[in-house]
């Protein structure tokens, strides 16, 4: 959390802002853990100029976080695949990253209403795709944890 004081340190309050966990911060492992066959891409349209991508069935990206709202940011596109999202080991959704046009740095999956305590999020590549998709690509650009 980030705190601020308006009275020379006598009282402190949390500054309400998202906490962004980038896919990569110069070293591995970072806050987002990638297992089984992920590759990093660089480009100006990605948050922090990188995103991590894979099309390997069973590959996972995981994040331990504290907060009531989670927002996975990535890229949808013509080669997008499908992924399962688990929070604390329970499936909470399956997403399809197919889109007719490439659209980087967009919200892929957002979930609110979690308890404001520690959680584990996992993104698991299913190796499945939309019939219109040319591939099974799943991307992780960043994961935002929000207070509201």
In short:
The protein has 148 residues and is an all-beta fold. Helix content is 0%, strand content 53%.
Which SSEs are present, and which pair or pack?
Elements: E1 3-4, E2 13-14, E3 19-22, E4 33-35, E5 39-42, E6 50-54, E7 60-66, E8 69-76, E9 81-87, E10 90-96, E11 103-111, E12 118-129, E13 138-140, E14 142-146
Antiparallel strand pairs: 1-2, 3-14, 4-7, 5-6, 6-13, 7-12, 8-11, 8-14, 9-10, 9-12
Radius of gyration: 16 Å
General shape: elongated
Which segments are poorly predicted (pLDDT under 50) over 5 or more consecutive residues? Answer: none
Strand content: over 45%
Secondary-structure element order, N to C = EEEEEEEEEEEEEE
Helical segment count: 0
| Global mean pLDDT | 92
Describe the sheet with the most strands.
5 strands, antiparallel
Total beta-strand segments = 14
Going by helix content, strand content and strand pairing, the class is mainly beta
The helical percent reads under 10%
Q: What distance separates the N and C termini? A: 14 Å
Biggest sheet strand order reads 4-7-12-9-10
Describe this entry's structure for a reader:
There is one protein chain. This protein is an all-beta fold and 148 residues long. 0% of the residues lie in helices and 53% in strands. A 5-stranded antiparallel beta sheet has the order 4-7-12-9-10, with no helix packed on it. A 4-stranded antiparallel beta sheet has the order 3-14-8-11, with no helix packed on it. A 3-stranded antiparallel beta sheet has the order 5-6-13, with no helix packed on it. A hairpin with a 7-residue loop joins strand 5 and strand 6. The mean pLDDT is 92.
